[in-house]
Amino acid sequence: MSSGVRDFIVGYLELAGQRVRSDNGCLIVRLPSDPDRIRAITFSSEVARRGRCELVALGSPFLSSVLGDTRGRGVAAARLPSANPEVALSSMTSGACRTALGAVEEIPRTALKFYYLLTYTSTKRSQRFVEVALDASGQEAAWLYPVRHYLNDDGPKRLGGRELEFVLERSASILRERVDQELKGLKAESERLLADAVDRIQSYYAQLRDETRNEAEFAHSRAGGAPPSAKGGVAQTGMSYEEAERLVAEYDRLEALEIARERARHGVRAEAMIVGVLLLSYNLLRCHVELQDEGASREVVVDVLPNGDLSPPIHDAYNR
Fold first, then answer.
1. 23-27 contacts: CB < 8 A, separation 24 or more?
2. d(Cα 286, Cα 199) in Å, to the nearest integer?
3. Cα–Cα distance measured from residue 32 to residue 285, given in angstroms and rounded to the nearest whole number
4. Peptide bond into 35 cis (omega under 30)
5. How many CB atoms lie within 10 A of CB 202?
6. Could you tell me the residue range of the domain that residue 37 belongs to?
7. Which among 102, 81, 137 is positioned nearest to 286, based on CA atoms?
8. Under a CB-based contact definition with an 8 Å cutoff, are residues 26 and 42 in contact?
């Protein structure tokens, strides 16, 4: 089961307002594009083999329908619930340091998640979903990747042309950095397989060339001791040197052709297709916190993200 496919499908259905119900290992769903049809789907090939559910995987008709819908409906919108600042602070402080929560200010923020379908092609083809999360400033928001549950918002929404161009460029740049790292490993493996294939081809044609030249040499040596022919010439049997060299030249041509084919077959390509954009709204909680440690106290200001992370961490804020 691909967790990336499952997360994408379930998240899409939830944001589209479609109820997802579990029944004996299957998910009972409706697609917004075909609301009258009830579908029983699964992300497990084992469950699908039992014949009760439709397998949803990369390349499946169900996923293709969802991808077509997400690309056509524009930017989906959702909200993130705010974290509990007291719980976040208590989980981030040690027993020796006590905290007292003061004023809390809610600051509206937005973030974006881009969903790409990434395809690697070489001697074999593989696909997977890749998320790129950006905050409002265009910086990668790593804290957003584990977040999976959203609240429905009014949508789909539109982004301004300049804003969309900027965030698309930033997301593509981040994706390219990841792909470059993965391509290094894929290219190294592909080059190893290519070297093995080229060695096999070269060894095969080297043997053919040797056999051809040996056959011509053997024919020449036999002709040297043959009796005169009826016409006064020398009886020639087997392959001549000229024929052998013509055949060797053909082997050279075929060898170069097969090596070129192997090089093309082992080339590594990566293609990315954007299949969804999610605009997230949330409140950043700007908290004034009094820290008490060994009789001393100090007020610091920290931001609490919806996942409960503190920015900056308490110990960094205290040491400023």
1. 24/52, 25/52, 25/53, 26/52, 26/53, 27/53
2. 64
3. 35
4. no
5. 13
6. 1-73
7. 102
8. yes
**Closest by CA position to 145, among listed 271, 7, 313:** 7
In a domain, 271, yes or no: no
Q: How confident is the model over 181-197, as a mean pLDDT? A: 88
pLDDT digits (tens, 9 = 90+) for 280-305: 889 999 988 887 776 677 888 889 99
Number of domains in the chain: 1
Residue 212 lies in a domain: no
């007292």: which residue's tokens?
100
165 within domain boundaries? no
DSSP state of 102: E
Angstrom distance (rounded) from CA 284 to CA 104? 10
Residue 40 lies in a domain: yes
Which domain CATH number covers 53?
3.30.360
pTM of the model: 0.70
